[in-house]
Amino acid sequence: MERSESVNLDDTLETPDFEGVDSLPETAGAPQRVPAGDQGPCLYLGPAGQRCDRRAVAGNFCARHQPGASQILSLPQISRRGVAVIGLLAVLWPVLADLVREIVRLLR
Question: I need a surface site. Which of 3, 9, 28, 39 has the fewest CB within 10 A?
Fold first, then answer.
C-alpha cells in the first residue's frame, strides 16, 4: 500500500537568501533568567477562586499564604452593623453638631 502526500507549493515563489546571516541573535532562543529566589506566582486560591498577585517564595506560596503563617498582617474585620453606625453618624453629623452647639449655648 503506497502513501503519497501532495503539498500545494507554488514553484514561482523564491526561497529567501540567507547568505550574509551567520546565526540567530543570542536573545532569540535564550531562556529567560529569573531571580534565584523567585518561584513564580503564589499558588494560593481565595474563597472565590481568585489568585494571589504576590510572588511565591520557598514552598510555592507568598509569605502571607505560607502554611502556618500568622494572620497578624490582615486588617481587622468590621461588622455590617459597625459600618452602618459609622455611615449613619456621617449622614447625621450636621444635625448632631447643631444639636450639641444649641445644648452648650443653653447651658451658658
Answer: 3
Residue range 35-66, pLDDT digits in tens: 666 677 888 887 888 888 888 887 788 878 77
pTM: 0.31
Domain containing 88: what range?
A: 79-108
For the chain, the domain total comes to 2
Only one residue has cell 453618624, namely 89
Q: Under a CB-based contact definition with an 8 Å cutoff, are residues 55 and 40 in contact? A: yes
Of the candidates 34, 33, 52, 50, the one whose C-alpha atom is nearest the C-alpha of residue 42 is: 52
Same domain for 83 and 62, yes or no, is no
Terminal-residue alpha carbon distance, the chain: 115
